[in-house]
Write a structure and sequence with these properties.
This protein has 122 residues and is mainly beta. It contains one helix and eleven strands; from the N terminus they run βββββββββαββ. The strands form two sheets. Strands 2, 4, 5, 6, 9, 10 and 11 form a seven-stranded mixed beta sheet that branches. It has a four-stranded antiparallel beta sheet with strand order 1-3-8-7, with no helix packed on it. A hairpin with a 4-residue loop joins strand 5 and strand 6. The longest helix has 4 residues.
Length: 122
């Protein structure tokens, strides 16, 4: 079974870059047709898909966050990264690393990490 573990700082100051790591075990981030997405949930709000990196390195982003979001990976460490720049308190949320199969519109998200709380505050 694929397991995902998010890690990174729980507190980030406004205007700084939020950086998170997703460490994957039990599966490869280069496995054919696999997709690795970051999803967040602000307090009292719904889930928001942020971006994805596919098994071949292709990336796509939520248009509302594209200018500030970067998803990357280190295949040697089987890790996926999230960088969200110029953060504000509205970026406070629980951040999840997830995986599923292409296309997500058909199969959806298969596995979720536990999630990590990130607070943006000075």
């Amino acid at each position: 079974q694929v397991q995902l573990q998010e890690s990174g700082p729980g507190l980030v100051k406004p205007s700084q870059t939020l950086s998170l790591t997703c460490t994957v075990s039990g599966g490869s981030i280069t496995s054919s047709y696999s997709l690795w997405s970051w999803i967040r949930q602000p307090p009292g709000k719904g889930l928001e898909w942020m971006g994805v990196i596919a098994y071949d390195g292709t990336t796509e982003y939520n248009p509302s966050l594209k200018s500030r979001t970067s998803v990357s990976r280190d295949t040697s460490k089987n890790q996926v990264f999230l960088h969200l720049s110029s953060v504000t308190p509205e970026d406070t949320a629980v951040y999840y690393c997830t995986t599923g199969l292409w296309p997500l519109t058909r199969y959806g998200v298969r596995n979720w990490g536990q999630g990590t709380q990130v607070t943006v505050s000075s």
